[in-house]
Amino acid sequence: MNRIEEARIFLKNKCHHAYRRELSKHEWSQISKEIADPALSMEDRAALRLKKFLENEKIIRHPGEKIYAWRTIKSFPDIYAEGEKEQIFASHYIHEQGRVCNISSDWAGVLAGGLLTRKTGNRARDITIDAVIEYADRYQDEALSNAVRFGAKHYEDALKLLRILHFSLWASNVYHNTLGRFDQYMYPFYKKDIEAKLITEEDALALTEEMFLSFNRDSDLYTGMQQGDNGQSMMLGGVDRDGNNAVNELTYICLTASLNNRRSDPKINLRVDKNTPLSLFIRATELTKQGLGFPQYANDDIVIPALVNYGYDIEDARDYTVAACWEFIIPGKGMDIPNIMAISLSEIVNGVIRERLSEAESYDSIFDSVKRSLSERAEADAKKLSPIYIESAPYQSVLMSDFTHDISEGAKYNNYGVHGTGFSDAVDQLAAVKKYIFDEKSVSKDELLSALRTDFEGSRTLLSLVRNNAPKLGRDDECTAIADALLNAFADALSPLRNERDGVFRPGTGSAMYYLWHADTLPAMANGHLPGERLPANFSPSLLVTDAGPLTVIRHMARPALLRVMNGGPLTLEMHDTVMRNQEGVNKVAQLVKSYIMLGGHQLQLNAVSRETLEDARIHPENHQDLIVRVWGWSGHFVELDTAYQDQILMRTSYQ
Amino acid sequence: MKGRIFDIEEFAVYDGPGIRSTVFFKGCPLRCKWCHNPEGLDFSPTRVTKLQLCMHCSACDSVCPSPGKCTGCGACEKACPKGLIRIAGREVEAKDVADQILKNAGLLMQSGGGVTFSGGEALMQTDFLLELNSLLKPLHTAVETSGYASENVFQRAAKEMDLVIMDIKHTDPAVHKEYTGVDNELILKNLSWLMQSMIPFRIRVPLIPGVNDTEENLTSTARLLEGAKALEMIELLPYHTAAGAKYASVRKEYRPGFDTSIRPNAITEPFLLRNMEVHVL
Ligand code: SF4
Ligand code: SF4
């Protein structure tokens, strides 16, 4: 058995859990007292915390192992003294855990230059640099010790260094630590070694596989909504900062490494455009076939101009990657908070229909009310976001392109992202009202309103009409104009707003976990949605539409108005895994993806699922410990999800 | 003109080259014991119910004016409080079917794909088929047929297609009759005409365990195909156990008449020996 195969089995059997321990009560209070010292600034405390954490970590080395670092301490005290946190949190807006998250480091810069050049004389940040160097030195590996100080020289050192830097980032209490454009920042090292014949492509693959496996070592300890939601996303492919195609050998090596490992981390994203050859889509579809729910595709033709419209410099826009799930961010330069709020589009539309329909004279007046209501909601919700408090993050600051100030205070880009949930159900509500109330006048306003009030009790025929026969996005072409109008209305509602850091608000088509939360409170709606029913994740046709075909779906979802709604959030297609049972099927799925990109679709996520397997996993979870599914913007083990998430996955339509 | 179809499937992966939309024609003269489209057998409309969610309230039955022989009136569809009913095979205009498919024409063409007419048996509605076919041109079109049709009908239709996909279920007339309900004489006649024509065609063998997956039957199938002018490939389709799942939803009983738990043998040698391209789907 080779080294990598052994490592896979070791991980799968969770043998490394034996290395872990909790601090004793005594240690905890000792350390806590030292770090959470009110005499120290928050910045110094955060630096000291990382130093202590790494000092307490045990060094584990397996024979033959090239990529180090196993987490041995499960949890560590934070930096707040008694009552301090509560006080700060009470007087500020707190995003999630109040810490830096969901951003992408300047991996290219640090790997090439090392940490020493990033010393600026700022005490806290310099302490973190020394702490990480000290930690790296404890592995007694000269190449690593040099790399961490002065930058890597070879592919292997660069990987070793990335691992230590990224591991330390988790230890520093920032989270959703993304991996950015790996095939870009690693390529110079790879290329040099290959040209000098120091390594072969096979060596590089083995190293990459070991590296990718290392991201799964500690992921169960990382914070997230559900097990697996840890933000370790990676972007491959795309163009360079000058706009040249930058797909390289490593792009393919990474796809292969992920395919061979079959692990949920890193979560692979692939940048493509209208000129991407079918062969790359085919390679990527072979990965999709493994059923891990990735790669997720992003379309450079659409994303880059959209980011420029939001005010990103063109070179930076070309360098985009994704945050934890799918939100577009700029490595090294962004302190965007791309998931700071979510608007339930279905709720807005439903509210307008219930309140305004009886006086409305035309469909246009209904739609005007939707616009107004969206603007009011956006403005009111945006007001709640300040003053924001984010814990100081000296070590993450060191890893940014501009390492001269604390990242928690902002960076070159400080935009906020807003999810829009229930998009398709909102469009379908409008379509039903337009058609039956205003165009055909076949349903009276009172009839619809009283049906909504009674959850369609006693209005079965109307329910059947709006639920099954009414125009639906993903099936009926009447909906596409409404979809564009709603996207534009969403963009219009946010475009006048600025946050306290002078950033813009980017509307998006993602949902995160809001597709469950928002669905919980939705009443009966004009598209036949009944209370308690689910919404689709992200940007997909309503779950009520069970007879949409994938061609119509990709055509409908590639909306031109997306150019203004580009926070991120993919069209999600579920393919029954038998579709990809042979090469012909794989090629055709690849062709379908390419078609969506050619049509101008922005982002796509494709899952290979087998309903039979999922259903069996509900009954016999013990037989499906390895079953990985895509949830919203991340992949995780099906059996470890809460039932609500499992249910929603089972509701999605899969194409055979 | 009007015809009856029971489905249009977008992105049919195994029905010819490229990305295709497949139109399923209603009605079939055969009764293959393994049929996995039972809703397509009768020419008349068929009520299809999603049984997993049915609460057996009988609202559908109580409104039905014609129990036992569905007229497609749609009363049950409207009556079901959970929207579980679909009427398969109402009459449709060829023009409407074509319009619906043509909305995705760009996608179909770009991938070198097109449209496949399947069923049921598309040749049972020849005029409707030919009208629909002409409305869809210049898209690449294919017919997927049992070959059970009069020679005149078969040739008229085949000549209009870019590709014919034809089944050979068994070479032995008696076994053929036992498992499909019809003799294979007409099928073999149409096959020999097709072999001499220049129309590109593919042969499909649904592999049924213990029925036709024997070395002997596949060898005689391969022999039959020797000398064909435009045979592209042979596709072997192993029977899969999900085939019986739909029967209950159309109130039919599944009586396969063979052991469904055995996986069929996909023997490719007889074709490979004769230098024929063969795929197992
Ligand atoms: S459509 Fe339904 S109600 Fe009408 S005849 Fe057929 S089964 Fe009966
Ligand atoms: S009306 Fe619907 S729920 Fe009631 S028995 Fe018929 S199919 Fe089942």
Question: Which small-molecule species are bound to the chains here?
Answer: iron/sulfur cluster
Proportion of residues in helical segments of chain A: 40-55%
Specify the structural class of chain A: alpha/beta
N to C succession of SSEs of chain B: EEEHHEEHHEHEHEHHEHEHE
Chain pair sharing the greatest interface: A-B, 27 and 24 residues
Question: How many strands in all of chain A?
Answer: 13
Task: Indicate the proportion of strand residues of chain A.
Answer: 5-15%
Biggest sheet record of chain B: 9 strands, mixed
Oligomer: heterodimer
Largest sheet of chain A: 6 strands, mixed
Q: Describe the strand arrangement of the main beta sheet of chain A, using strand numbers.
A: 1-2-3-10-9-13
Task: Describe the protein.
- The complex is a heterodimer of chains A (656) and B (281).
- Chain A is α/β, with parallel strands linked by helices and 656 residues long.
- Chain A has 27 helices and 13 strands.
- Chain A has helices at residues 3-12, 25-35, 42-56, 84-90, 107-113, 123-137, 142-150, 155-171, 182-185, 187-195, 201-214, 249-261, 278-288, 300-309, 314-318, 345-356, 363-383, 394-398, 423-439, 445-453, 460-469, 478-494, 514-520, 550-557, 583-599, 611-619, 643-651, and strands at residues 233-237, 267-272, 296-299, 321-322, 328-329, 337-344, 416-421, 505-508, 571-576, 603-609, 628-630, 635-637, 654-655.
- In chain A, strands 1-2-3-10-9-13 form a six-stranded mixed beta sheet.
- In chain A, strand 11 (628-630) and strand 12 (635-637) form a beta hairpin.
- The longest helix of chain A is centred in the middle third of the chain and has 21 residues, at 363-383.
- Chain B has 281 residues and is α/β, with parallel strands linked by helices.
- Chain B has a nine-stranded mixed beta sheet with strand order 5-1-2-6-7-8-9-10-11. A two-stranded antiparallel sheet of chain B has the order 3-4.
- In chain B, a hairpin with a 7-residue loop joins strand 1 and strand 2.
- Chain B starts with a strand and ends with a strand.
- The structure holds iron/sulfur cluster (2 copies).
- The site of one iron/sulfur cluster has 13 residues of chain B, from helix 1.
